[in-house]
Design a protein that fits this description.
mainly alpha, elongated
């Protein structure tokens, strides 16, 4: 008797693959390092709402862009052995679902967060 996996776990795993969570994490960590060293040089605290909004915006825009790339490349991905098991080529997720995920939810959520972080000015600027 075959045991089916948890559908919620499977969907979360597909979202993680669609949005390239590992790459997005590295991008956010790189931004955090830049913010940390910039705040240190400016003599201000590195722990602030500006940091939070910046990292949220960068993470959401980055993951949305990765998902949009997967939507655009799903035909090519289906033909390559290395990428054939991604959510779109393997048809575990529809192109419409991934398109909505990438072009509505994430970039539109990321832009306000990033915009808010730009409104917080550093001393002396």
């Amino acid at each position: 008797m075959a045991v089916r996996g948890n559908p919620v776990h499977s969907l979360l795993r597909d979202y993680a693959e669609l949005t390239k969570v590992r790459v997005t994490t590295l991008i956010v960590m790189t931004a955090w390092c830049g913010y940390f060293f910039g705040a240190h040089k400016a003599g201000i605290s590195w722990l602030s709402w500006g940091l939070f909004h910046s990292l949220m915006g960068i993470g959401l825009v980055s993951s949305g862009t990765a998902a949009l790339n997967e939507v655009m490349e799903h035909d090519v991905d289906a033909r390559m052995r290395r990428t054939a098991m991604r959510p779109l080529p393997a048809q575990r997720m529809s192109v419409l679902h991934a398109s909505i995920q990438s072009s509505v939810r994430q970039p539109l959520s990321g832009v306000p967060s990033t915009w808010r972080s730009l409104q917080i000015r550093l001393p002396g600027c």
